[in-house]
Amino acid sequence: MKKIYDLFVSGGKDSVVSATVAFEEAKQQGVEARVVFIDESKAFKIPEHLIPYKPIDYVRKFSEWLGAELIVLEPDFDYWEGVKRWGYPMYIINRWCMEKLKRKPLEEFLYKEVKQGYRPVWVFGYRREESWRREKIYTQKKMIWKLGGIQIENYYPILDWTERQVDEFIRKREIPENPLWQLGFSLECLCMAGTTRRQLDKMITTFPELFKYLAEKDKEVQQVRRRKDPTYIAPLEDIKEPLHIYVEKKLREPKITDYI
């Protein structure tokens, strides 16, 4: 079977640096490499004009800069129907979004690769210092995992890097910048399972029209779940406040420009 590097890129700094490092290694080894992006946007049913910085637009630009083919995977699933059934995903528990939005399209992709005669190496931009959970789980740069009954080699080339090393590498290699990097958050994962309250506040004030839409979807969710239990996005779980109420309050808060 022919070896191939699949460079999984989300649009974040770590993923593009990891992809660049692995792509250069693959070229030295004479191994084929391509960028893979899981486009979850359709699962959220968000009108395109409400997302000014689409992750796929940046990933496409990065792939062209790298000189690698881009493979786009899309989940065939309605995120909001999932929320109505199981509640909002949390960072660790009840993270059903991983299964529905990522695992299923990845399994289908893997089966296709093996059928085509490839022995894939999946490359991810994980770093140990990001969280205690990653430090505990990802103990080596190369690890064998199973997906859909198939063994696969996962490779984490920047596992031991610091954030400073990542920034220096981006500057030295002149990697194209994602506009969202300056904002300190990503629109790639709108389930917000890993979003902090501070990031949420910034997202609401930066993209008010997008969050008005998400607030309306949350109202639909809460109406359905009224017969069971209300559900809260991860950064609001501790205060038990529905997203639509929190968004409405945030958008009513005075801004500094109101006094200028």
Q: Please count the beta strands (DSSP E, at least 2 residues each).
A: 6
CATH class of the largest domain: Alpha Beta
How many domain modules? Answer: 2
Strand order of the largest sheet: 3-2-1-4-6-5
Cα distance, first to last residue?
A: 66 Å
- What integer is the average pLDDT? 90
Provide the helix percentage. 40-55%
Form type: globular
In sequence order, what are the helices and strands, one letter per element?
A: EHEHEHHEHEEHHHH
Low-confidence stretches: none
How would you concisely characterize the structure shown here?
With 260 residues, the chain is an alpha/beta fold. The chain is built from nine helices and six strands.
Task: Give structural notes.
The chain has nine helices and six strands. With 260 residues, the chain is α/β, with parallel strands linked by helices. It folds into two domains: 182 residues, Rossmann fold; 57 residues, no CATH class. Strands 3-2-1-4-6-5 form a six-stranded mixed beta sheet. Strand 5 and strand 6 form a beta hairpin. Helix 3 packs across helix 8 and helix 8 runs antiparallel to helix 9.
